[in-house]
Amino acid sequence: MKEKLTTLESALSPIVSGSSVAIGGSLLRRQPNAAVRQLIRARVRDLTVMSWAGTTAIDLLAAADAIRRWEGIYVGLFNYGLAPNFRRAVESGRIEVRDFSETAMVARLRAAAQGMPFLPIRTLFGSDIAKVNPEQIRTFDCPFTGQKLQAIAAAEPDFTLIHGYAGDKYGNVQWPVVRDTDDMDQPFASGAKRLIVTVEKIVPHEEIKKQPSLTYIPGNWVEAIVEVPYGAHPAACDTLYDEDDAHLRDYVARSKTAEGVKAYLDEFANALPDHAAYLEKCGGLAALAALDVKGRA
Amino acid sequence: MKEKLTTLESALSPIVSGSSVAIGGSLLRRQPNAAVRQLIRARVRDLTVMSWAGTTAIDLLAAADAIRRWEGIYVGLFNYGLAPNFRRAVESGRIEVRDFSETAMVARLRAAAQGMPFLPIRTLFGSDIAKVNPEQIRTFDCPFTGQKLQAIAAAEPDFTLIHGYAGDKYGNVQWPVVRDTDDMDQPFASGAKRLIVTVEKIVPHEEIKKQPSLTYIPGNWVEAIVEVPYGAHPAACDTLYDEDDAHLRDYVARSKTAEGVKAYLDEFANALPDHAAYLEKCGGLAALAALDVKGRA
Amino acid sequence: MADFTNNELITAYLSRQIREDDLCFVGVGTNGRAFTLAVGMPLAAVRLAQLHHAPGAAVYWGNLLEPDLSVIPEHFTQDTFTQWQAAACPPDTGVKCDMLARGRFDVSFNSAAQLDRYGNMNITAIGDYRNPKVRLVGSLAQPEHFAFVRRPLLLMDLDARSFVEKVDFITSAGHLSGGNSRREAGLSEGGPALVVTDKAVFDFAEDTREMRLKSLHPGVTKDAVLAAMSFVPLVPETIPETEPPTVKELAHIRSDIDPNRILLKV
Amino acid sequence: MADFTNNELITAYLSRQIREDDLCFVGVGTNGRAFTLAVGMPLAAVRLAQLHHAPGAAVYWGNLLEPDLSVIPEHFTQDTFTQWQAAACPPDTGVKCDMLARGRFDVSFNSAAQLDRYGNMNITAIGDYRNPKVRLVGSLAQPEHFAFVRRPLLLMDLDARSFVEKVDFITSAGHLSGGNSRREAGLSEGGPALVVTDKAVFDFAEDTREMRLKSLHPGVTKDAVLAAMSFVPLVPETIPETEPPTVKELAHIRSDIDPNRILLKV
Question: Above 50 in pLDDT, residue C1?
Fold first, then answer.
């Protein structure tokens, strides 16, 4: 097996301005926020970003003016309301959006995983989602029944970023048996061209290979793996730690203005050399442990 | 939740001559053989049978002259050679076959699960598998790229039969964390119209709901669930018991002739009232325990 | 009258829409009043149906299929969801999408920023899509609900900004421009069935598919309803009162389902 | 010569076809000589490549991705597979199919009941499809291997019944009728790369795509090869000898990989 363990800086260095990037996680779970802060530090711009239910990762990138186009099912802050910076950027015309409903986005991810240029659905008849996007959503006739169907173009991002629970140095990433599965991280990984994974913890391969069915991202699919404890902060990593309510409230408050969030980004991303410094800035591992939920090993 | 626990006889009684039935398991794992012996006892005929890598279940049904048509990726007896009774029936013209390669069969199952009349692949250009089956495999043009693709018709069996590890009375079936996953039981279940599941053991719902991510067949999809210990015998149920080598050798030997296997079927299916009698006929639970592998609870 | 709250009235009403063995979609998000509308009353309504007349009714909530609704925790952080017990927790959300497209859902609970005369809804953008006045959250599975669920139930507070003549963006196609237009667009029958608000209940006329006042909540006048809408719905000659909760229903809600007023808080 | 077995020769030859980071498909089935061809020599060849020159080479075997090949058990019952350790064991076989269709595999090991001049193969039926003389197993993922794997390697004993002018049924499309016919049918480049037999190795001519004698195993004559085939392949003027295993390769095979002769038994 090939060793793929590296640093956040090195793993993300291929992502340059203008790249397309799929971002995993869903709602306040497993947002790859440590990776996103590194992209912000690296001053990457003009990204095409794809997501499932995106929250902090997308809004942080929007705040940093790193997104040119977004495609996905949702951007918001879950129970913290609309995504303030994403919203501001869309309303000001800086971010172009293309919406996909859930079956449509699922079709896009599965098409990529299956090596197909499209998959069919029949959800979006009559919806303006299809009307505004003839480039990626087209009506065609079923070759068997003749009935009208909608072809949804495959999602083919240059890079895919996922934050996971635990992995080995070969890039094999495992999930716990009991977990919150309300996301599309495995389908995102299945269809990825260049897959970069951050995990809470690197564990020995000997542990991984005892329970191979817990590996949801095989190392064979992975280009680089990085250990970033609390890598989803201020969002949660289910089974390990909860969302940081105080931090999120502060983020929302400071995001009321572009200046406010600029100061936030300077403080929590740009002024810091790396993820370790971010953790210190957030009070260090001792303070962050207050977010831990039972079960964190 | 709705209670779905019943007997093999009652669960299978809706399957009548002429029905189409998808049969789960793969190679010598989790063949729903107890259910198949019940179908044989019930003298069901003219079935259209779909399978992944079918072995004992398909060959037993063929031996009983219960199959009119088969569609799938493989029928054989794995390391016990070709499937003698299936082979005889196909060669004599009693069973009509339509072959599907693995991506084609996967497309059929996923199409059914997704409520689609077809899914696209691009595997079978130049293959006679497509040439002999224009009813279910058709070339069409990608609505985006214009490239040639092949549409594979959804698998829409009337019934789906799966043998699983453990379930509750509501039909929720769970797998162990470490298992042999080389099969398509979950995709078969996802696309089923009427899903009938046999399991090695009925466990309390309280056990199931503690680890909901181990439920691979939600009770919501299930019409009936039946407890049949050693329900895959003489095939294996991975993590619980191995294949019965002596029984399989005897079966293969007796299957050399139609008369031979007729006697086998009389002895192990027709002459017996139920699965309990079959287990007794095979030496009872004490003898069968010799097949157990470590881990059987 | 008034020995029950408006939330109790709505919850009991919704529960009566749920039939034996129905599979119901409930969302997970938001807080405050939006939580009550999107999560609290729907969960309470299904639980009430389970206890009252539909023991086989089930919920798909987040990615939990048939979650145990017998105990409701005080707070909903991530770990609350992680540890929630359920019959099944499929490997990813794609399974739920497949079940939607396959027509396995009977009921969904929906709400929107805008809803129009024909039950088209908008959670995507206010104003022009490419240059929006307000960018909303996107679409989630709301288009799927209107396309595939047998009886989508809308649950929204009546408000002239939300109940508009024509939505700015059709996220979910309801009855489109009425009549047969939904079928002509390629959608199956179905679409939004009922709109349950804090003041009244609406359905959609069988022929024109226009929104129609179906019942007024106890103490609410027709004029109060019309004043809170930007279009005039069909109004029948006689409008019945929304049937209030029974003593038994109230007892279930108060004692068994939501004793700590988590679900029906605001 | 002859201080190595034919199986060792083939295994070492195959291992040299495997390059660093190659992902290789290996089957799981059968017993006796068929096991050696389908499972034993392929597994041994990949393991040899890992030890010798391609530490990043990987196997997808059954539904195990990167199984631990460092210890080979005596018997292969179901439980042997169940307990085999690996980097990953995806939720169902569909994941492997997707990886095939996505072009993630570099090498596959294949064998067939019939193989023809253009590398088309048949594991479905001998005789007429609808009225076969012999019904075989079907197709499995053999069509996928020839359609999507970069370098499919055929591993078959040379036999006039197997090496036929034209297969009765094209399960897997090889180079079809030669020349550009494979591309014209809609398939990507690729298709069968090498045919490794117990007597000789074949490749396919760059222009006509006809099977071509590439090397003779030590001690085997051209005539012995042609006598074991039902068609005459392309035969170059000079035919090199199949390169024998090195001392180092033999040591790996005998001491590290297959000390108990499970994989290269028959």
Answer: no
Q: What is the ipTM of this complex?
A: 0.97
**Nearest Cα to B49, choosing from B72, B83, B21?**
B21
Tell me how far apart the alpha carbons of residues A95 and B207 are, in angstroms, rounded to a whole number: 48
The answer, yes or no, to whether residue A101 has pLDDT greater than 80, is yes
Put the strands of the sheet holding A118-121 in their side by side order.
A118-121, A148-153, A137-141
Mean pLDDT of C196-209: 98
Determine, yes or no, domain membership for A108. no
pLDDT at B295: 60
Q: How many domains is chain D partitioned into structurally?
A: 1
Contacts with A8 (C-beta within 8 Å, 6 or more apart), sequence order: A34, A35, A38, A198, A226, A228, A274, A275
- Return the partners of chain C (3 or more C-beta pairs < 8 Å): A, B
CB contact under 8 A, A117 and B177: no
* pTM tops 0.95, yes or no: yes
Burial class (CB in 10 A: 0-12, 13-18, 19+), A250: middle
Average pLDDT over residues B7-34: 98
Whether the CA torsion C203, C209, C213, C215 is positive or negative: it is negative
Q: Which residues contact A87 (CB under 8 A, 6 or more apart)?
A: C134, C135
pLDDT at B281 over 80: yes
Indicate which CATH number applies to the domain containing B255. 3.40.1080.10
Contact flag A114-D101 (C-beta cutoff 8 Å): yes
Contact B145 A119 (CB under 8 A): no
- Taking 70 as the threshold, does the pLDDT of residue D86 lie above it? yes
Q: What is the mean pLDDT of chain C?
A: 96
- The domain of B86 spans 8-98+158-291
Residues B194 and B262 in one domain: yes
**D58 falls within a domain:** yes
The answer to whether residues B86 and B206 belong to one domain is yes
Q: Which chain B residue is nearest to residue C51, measuring alpha carbons?
A: B1
Please, which residues 220-239 of chain B have a Cβ atom closer than 8 Å to chain C?
Answer: 220
Judged by a CB distance cut-off of 8 A, whether residue B160 touches chain C is no
Q: What is the mean pLDDT of residues A226-237?
A: 98
A257 near B CB under 8 A: no
Task: For residue B203, give the DSSP letter.
Answer: -
Inspect the interface and report whether the beta carbons of C21 and B215 lie closer than 8 Å: no
Q: Is residue C263 part of a domain?
A: no
Query: Residues B170, B212: one domain?
Result: yes
Residues C90, B210: C-beta atoms closer than 8 Å: no
What region does D251 belong to: left with phi over 0, alpha with psi -120 to 50, or beta? alpha
Nearest CA in chain A to B122: A116
Range of the domain at C220: 6-257
Which of B116, B170, B212 is opposite residue C89, by nearest beta carbon? Answer: B212
Same domain, B277 and B190: yes
In a domain, D116, yes or no: yes
Quick one: closest CA in B to A209, which residue?
B178
List the subunits that have 3+ CB pairs under 8 angstroms with B.
A, C, D
Partners for D (CB, 8 Å, 3+ pairs)? Answer: A, B
pLDDT, residue A294, reads 83
